[in-house]
């Protein structure tokens, strides 16, 4: 359901001096999108993302999740000033994948006050209940392939593309409202130092195309065939993560939208595809960190700022990147070769540091229950630098 045109029957939820109202106009949607930078501008460690990036994530005209999901946006107000926001989402593809009536809440940003947090969560819960949901999970904005989790640790770490930021006080306020931890999502910062070669992660120094891996090959991203390779990536990604916690299959139109957003910054070195006997068996996709080139620019750039960004983008002045997709096909999962695939993919990305300007790469998010991947990553980085948490709660089915 388009948040720009909610029905007139949408309720108002008062809590103390807080009023929560649905977003009903393009003007309110614009404020909804830029609200975090107004709320957190004085917070240590916070850096506002570009409005353009958030528009792609939250505007119904740009995010293709609206093709299969019903979404409602709410903002909390006090004395005419917006003090918080939240989204409530019923994702049709998620309901198909899980066969459970679970709705998401997300885009969750607020001043860390009990009355504000309660009012926002109550509004999302009531709307999800009215859509027939039995349980709510989040924060997830707006779906599995967007931004996930509430930041628990890492507020003063360098910001990273696609990674939500929250003040440290918010998590206790969510937990006080009856939410329980679903999963923790862990991020590890891998510094691309010279000694990485001495800490080689591939057992036995095995190499694709050699010895026991003679029928294993590695390919790059081809910009000329990016759409076709995007479909290969989507199929492999969906196959690799099917059945895992909170996973929703990536749709073809979502992959097309992702490619359109990333086309300007993607290079052949950003994509690793590992084939076994001519068939895709594992993949990894890395994206440069947009925050590296906007540190001195406001979230809503001026024309001069846009010119600066253009120069920095064309010259690829990035210092860090994030691995956003990593997976292994079920065809080799559970085999010795399958166990090697994540090591091979990460090793290939590390070796490409010779042609990319990055000083560090973030690996995340990794589920706290993904023991094989955690064991692999912790050989290089013992502790996560950021932790995001997914919460869950049974929806109260009684009348509010």
TrEMBL record:
Coiled coil: none annotated. SUPFAM superfamilies: Acyl-CoA N-acyltransferases (Nat). This is N-acetyltransferase domain-containing protein.
């Amino acid at each position: 359901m388009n948040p720009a045109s909610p029905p007139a029957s949408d309720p108002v939820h008062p809590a103390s001096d807080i009023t929560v109202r649905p977003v009903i106009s393009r003007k309110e949607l614009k404020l909804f999108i830029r609200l975090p930078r107004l709320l957190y501008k004085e917070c240590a460690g916070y850096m506002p993302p570009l409005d353009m990036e958030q528009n792609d994530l939250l505007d119904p005209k740009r995010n293709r999740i609206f093709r299969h999901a019903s979404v409602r946006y709410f903002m909390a107000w006090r004395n005419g000033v917006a003090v918080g926001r939240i989204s409530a989402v019923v994702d049709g593809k998620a309901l198909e994948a899980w066969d459970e009536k679970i709705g998401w809440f997300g885009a969750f940003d607020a001043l860390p006050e009990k009355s504000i947090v309660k009012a926002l969560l109550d509004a999302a819960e009531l709307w999800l209940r009215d859509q027939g949901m039995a349980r709510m999970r989040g924060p997830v904005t707006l779906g599995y392939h967007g931004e996930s989790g509430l930041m628990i640790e890492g507020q003063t770490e360098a910001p990273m593309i696609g990674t939500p930021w929250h003040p440290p006080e918010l998590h206790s306020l969510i937990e006080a409202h009856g939410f329980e931890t679903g999963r923790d999502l862990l991020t590890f910062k891998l510094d691309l130092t010279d000694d990485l070669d001495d800490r080689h992660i591939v057992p036995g120094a095995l190499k694709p195309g050699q010895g026991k891996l003679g029928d294993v090959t590695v390919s790059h991203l081809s910009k000329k065939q990016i759409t076709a390779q995007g479909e290969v990536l989507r199929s492999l990604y969906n196959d690799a993560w099917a059945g895992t916690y909170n996973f929703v299959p990536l749709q073809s139109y979502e992959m097309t939208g992702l490619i359109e957003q990333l086309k300007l910054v993607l290079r052949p070195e950003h994509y690793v595809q590992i084939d076994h006997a001519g068939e895709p068996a594992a993949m990894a996709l890395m994206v440069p960190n947009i925050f590296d080139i906007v540190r001195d620019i406001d979230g809503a750039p001026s024309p001069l700022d846009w010119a600066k960004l253009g120069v920095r983008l064309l010259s690829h002045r990035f210092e860090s990147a994030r691995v956003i997709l990593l997976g292994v096909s079920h065809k080799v999962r559970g085999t010795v070769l399958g166990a090697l695939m994540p090591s091979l993919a990460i090793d290939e990305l590390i070796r490409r540091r010779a042609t990319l300007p990055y000083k560090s790469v973030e690996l995340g998010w990794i589920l706290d229950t993904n023991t094989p991947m955690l064991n692999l990553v912790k050989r290089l980085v013992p502790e996560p630098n950021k932790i995001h948490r997914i919460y869950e709660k049974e929806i109260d089915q009684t009348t509010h």
